Amino acid sequence: MGNIMEHDLQKKQELELWNMVSSGKPRQGAKTPSRTPQRMKQEVPNRNYQTISRSKKTAQAVRRKKARKRRIRFYRLMAIIRIILCLIGAHTVADTIYGWVHKPPEKEEAVVQVVSLPAQNDEIAFEEHDITLMAVGDNLLHMGIVNAGKQSDGSRNYDFLFDGIGAFLEKADIKIINQETIFGGNELDFHGYPKFNSPTEAGDAIAGAGFNVVLQATNHTADQGMSGMENCIDFWKTHPEVLVTGIHEPLTEETYKNRIPLLKVGDDTFAILNYTYGANGESISSSIKDRMNMLCDVDESNGRIDFETLNKQVLLDISEAKTLADIVIVCPHWGTEYSTTPSSTQEKFAMQMTEAGADIIIGTHPHVVQPVKWIEATNGNRALCYYSLGNYVSTQKNGQSMLEGMAWITFHVTKDGISVSEDQTGIIPLVCHYTSNPTRFKQVYLLENYTEELASSHGIISYGGISFHLDDCLKWSDEILGDWILSADEVLSP
C-alpha cells in the first residue's frame, strides 16, 4: 500500500515538473527553486542532504545541478515517449472507431444459383409449331405460254403464271416447282415441244413469286445440249435465294462432298434431292450425266440407261442426306406419260427410296395426277409418296392433263422431333385454263372455284373431238386423289 502511494506521489511530482519545464513557469503555489541545499531539499523530497562545508557545497551544487539536468532530460524523454505512446494509442483508437463506423457488412457465405438457359428441347423455351410445304408439277412452257408473256414493248413478263396460287405461296415455308423446260439462253431461239428452250424471264417470275426450290432434272434438261445446261446453271446463279436441285457444275472430289442440297427453315433442315429417269433417249453422254442427276442406272461403258434399275447413287445420296437433315425429300422425274396409275417401276423405286430413308417422295413427269400413298418399308421406314402432281401449266391436248395437283404437307415440330401432321396434309386439285385462237395461257384455278362456264370456254375444246367439263374434272379428282383432297380453307385458315 505504501509503495503504491509513494509511486502515485512520484508520478504527480514528475507531472508537475514536466508542466514547469514545458511552460517555463513555476507550478502554482511554488517558489522559484533556490540554489541552497535547504531549498533543494524542500523541493525534492525523499532526498537526504547532509550539512557540509562551503567548498564541498559548491562541488555538491555542481553535481546536483548536473544530476538535476539529467533528471530533467530523463523526465522530458519519458514525457515525450508517453506522448508518442499516447498519439499511437489515439491513432489506434481512431482507426478502430473508423473501422467500426465504416466496416463493410460481413459477407455472407456465397450461395451459387445455377440458372439453366432454356434449350431448344426445354418445355419453357420450346414452342411447338408447324412448317408447311407446297409443291406444284411441271412448269411446261409451250409456245402458247411463252407468247402470252410477250409485252407490247418487246419485253417479257411471266408473273401472271402464278396469280392463281398467290395465297398459298404466301402461306407456305417451302415452295417447290418442277421446271420442266430448260433456260438454255435467250440468245437462242425459243422453242416448244419437242426441243424446248424457255425465256429466262419465266425463271425470274418463279423467283419473284416466292418459290425457293426449283427442280431442274427432267427429260428436257438436255434439249439444248451442253451449252444449254451450262447457260441454265449460270442463270440460276443470278437467284441465289433459290435452291436449284437436279443439275449442277461438274462434280469434283470437293463438290461431291457437298452434293446434298439443303434448305434450312428455322432450326430444321430439309434435304431436297431431284433425279430424272433420262433425257429423251436410250442413252446419255458422260458430259451430260456429269451435270444432271440420274434416277436410273447407267452403263458407264456405253451410256445406256437401265430404266428398270435404280441408280445406286440415289440410295447413297439418301443415306448421306439422312445424316444431314431432319427431313429427306426425294423428287423423281419418272413414270408413264398420261397414265393415272403408278407403274411397277415407280412402286419399286418408291419402296427402295423409303427403305434408304426418304421421308417424302414427290413425283413429276406423267402430265397427269397420280395417287398419294404412304409407303411402308420392311425395315420400318415410312414415306409419304405423291406419285405425280401432273402439270402446273401447259397447253397440252389431253383433257386429264388440265387437272393438276398442288401438294400441301404440314410438318409438326415438337421438342422430340418433326413429323407429318396428317390432318393438314394432302393435295389441292387445280385446273390449268387456256384459251384458243390464238392459244394463250389464262390462269390456274382451284378446282373448287372452277365453273362449268369456264370449262365450256377452255381452249382445249378447239381441238377436234375433245370435250371438257367440270364434272369430268371432279370425277377424276375423286377417283385418283380420294381422301387426300384438301380445300383452300383447310390450308389457308389461321
Distance between the termini: 107 Å
Structural class: alpha/beta
CATH superfamily heading of the largest domain: Metallo-dependent phosphatases
CATH top level label of the largest domain: Alpha Beta
Number of helices: 14
The average pLDDT value, as a whole number, equals: 85
Estimated share of beta-strand residues: 15-25%
Q: Give a quick account of the main beta sheet: strands, pairing sense, barrel closure.
A: 9 strands, mixed
CATH topology of the largest domain: Purple Acid Phosphatase, chain A, domain 2
DSSP strand count? 17
Please give the CATH architecture of the largest domain: 4-Layer Sandwich
Report helical residue fraction.
25-40%
Q: Give the number of domains.
A: 2
Topology of helices and strands:
Layout: H1 2-23, H2 37-43, H3 54-102, E1 129-139, H4 143-146, H5 166-171, E2 174-178, H6 200-209, E3 213-215, H7 225-236, E4 243-245, H8 253-257, E5 262-265, E6 268-276, H9 286-289, E7 296-298, E8 305-310, H10 312-324, E9 327-333, H11 344-356, E10 360-362, E11 372-376, E12 382-386, E13 391-393, E14 403-414, E15 417-420, E16 426-435, E17 440-446, H12 452-456, H13 470-481, H14 488-492
Parallel strand pairs: 1-2, 1-13, 2-3, 3-4, 6-9, 9-10, 10-12
Antiparallel strand pairs: 1-14, 5-6, 7-8, 11-12, 14-15, 14-16, 16-17
Helix pairs in contact: 1-3
